[in-house]
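The passage that follows is intended for readers who have already worked through the single-chain material. We present the inputs for a multi-component assembly, then the predicted structure in tokenized form, and finally a short commentary. You are encouraged to pause after the input and sketch how you expect the pieces to fit together before reading on.
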Amino acid sequence: MTASARSANPLPMKERMKVARQLMPEQAAGIRAHNFTEVNLGYSAELARQEALRCLECAKPTCMKACPVGVKVREFVSLIVAGDFLGAAAKIREDNVLPAITGRVCPQEDHCEGACLIGRKVKPLGIGYLERFVADYEQRMGVRSLPQASPTGKKVAVVGSGPSGLTVAGDLVQKGHQVRVFEALHELGGVLVYGIPEFRLPKQIIHEQLDYMRAMGVEFETDVVVGRTVTLDELMDEEGYDSVFIGTGAGLPVFMNIPGEHLNGVYSANEFLTRINLMKAYKFPAYDEPMLDLHGKDVAVIGGGNTALDAIRSALRLGARKAYVLYRRSEAEMPARAEEVKHAREEGIEFHILTSPVEFRSQSANNGSGWLSGARCQRMELGEPDASGRRRPVPVAGSEFELPLSVAVIAIGTSANPIVQNTTPGLGTDKRGYIQADPETQRTSRKGVFAGGDIVTGSATVILAMGAGRRAARSIHEYLNTGQW
Amino acid sequence: MFQILHAEFLAPDIKRFLIQAPRIARKQKPGQFVILRIHEEGERIPLTIESSDPERGTIRLVVQSAGKTTHLLNSLRAGDKILDVVGPLGKPSEIGRFGTVVVIGGGVGTAMAYPTAAALKQAGNRIISIVGARSKELVILEREMGAVSDVLMITTDDGSYADRGFVTDKLRQLIQNGVRVDLVLAVGPIPMMKAVAEMTRGERIRTIVSLNPIMIDGTGMCGGCRVLADGKSQFACVDGPEFDAHSVNFDVLVQRNRTYRAQEQQSMAAWAESQRGPQIGPVETGLCAMEGVHP
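Having made your guess, compare it with the prediction:
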């Protein structure tokens, strides 16, 4: 470990780890559980500089290696120490076109912060909080460092405006390519707008990032379902695109195939969250899309990922009396971010781990038949590891119990959406229907066509999708320059 | 933004729109639908495409006023704009040479059955069409259906036009008279489609219905439009909207379409109040507002 020769950090190495990790200011749990305003409030400049002082400025920064998009963490943190917040933001933007978003939703504990050296002894550097701070600072200052590149005359179509597609678009437009993003929904952002709730990622932040991309020259077209409105081949053969990136994201929601799943009140997490986030049903009747009134109702989400927590915390904010997470494995296997689990607990979400519903039930007395009134659940215990490497949940005999519920939200994952694959001859897919792409280059079986994000890997995270987008942008650029496949 | 080029009432509360939507017009096939959102605060609703003109880049939609959004839509005129129209969505109708096809359109469902009837006629089938409506003024597209049918039969519930009765009465007559029917396509209110399915099940006549569940994205992402068919959940937006009528659990469809009835009534009442004009019909209380709207 050696400090950079130009380090502005006044603290000697051994003092740096003595500085405590600066806490993220947040809305009090009792208040935020009833509103959709952002939970985390963000560092002040003072907190940010204080936190940045903790960085050891390692000669070989493991944090940067652990970042799926390769953000130069040490360099941007040093700029914060030096008080150059705009410089820090520009430094991040060299590798990450959506810093205000990843600063909020990235699971840093699995990447940069998980690899942070001081994390072996004390709490790791708050890299995500710092990233968020400089991105927000840049936005507040209204400064945009727009890269200038001379036009190459090449056209790239990006299918889907989620994290992978936006990353590809941002990276390629900076190389001088003409980029147009096609989005199936009426609003841009993919999972960032339909999936992640306002209290974790305000829509305003996404709009600002999109404005930035428009200013960089990225073109957007909404209401286009590629495969239906226009096919991939038509984009290439008739509309003159030299290359296409497919980032259509997580697909069809998976249901449990247990009795009662068609009852009114049983939702997929995608539908539940789309109503609330994209369609703003929580503002009904000012917005037309309806939502069931959850006031005083008991609501459960089935699943233990970030989507599950987003759904149940939304239900709580919509007035749910009881809000449960039913998860069939133990908390150790729960895929949700630690911070989200902590926030959810503080807000009053009840976790029923090692629990799984076996049937959704309806009592005809409740609102007439056809409405959910409860779930029959069973307790599980962990057996031998399964294909995912996690210990397999096994039902405990005789453990069944009734849980009264008005609404159940199923958040157990998704399967591949087939629309692009079915309408694009020669596009290779795996046996689960996901698009096959080279993990290094993101090339598909079709010349000039690249793919990345959830439509290749199955459900993953925003930052992993962005990492795929980065790799794809690099190889699309190479392909456009050399013409070689 | 999608501009309305022309709009005309085909019947009280049923309006036909000509909309500029070049991408959709190029790709539309019979049986497919669009999802539209009128304005920023609007909901997304599915509507079947009646026809399209790829040269002019236009599509035609036929809309029956049922809930707030369809009432609002039917108040729009030529020159007005619709914020979002996306499509064509869903699987196209299966067009083949089946032999004799009975095409049944109930109410506004006639407009949804029409493009498939036309394509089936084109493919060399003998088309017997049965168009049903509550009363004379609600019979729509009689001329268009006549032009693509070898036989056109019309029923009205109240007998104010053509034959009094239901479409199923005509279907029963055909079957009883020994007419060989190779395929039935039924599009209309759920009770009508269910009754047709019950009638053809015993006769083992292959029957197709086009379903109209509540839908949001229309691309398979939300799963809200799931219907119980063949005992398993299927998505009307990507697996349908057409299904084998004998596999469909219509009771579940009716039940799920009622999910937001209270909210729909609230929206409709607020809208009617905001209009306070004599042109607005009474607020529906019996039916789910979506039931009259067909994808």
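Commentary: The mean pLDDT of chain B is 92. Chain B is about 25% helix and 30% strand. How closely did your sketch match?
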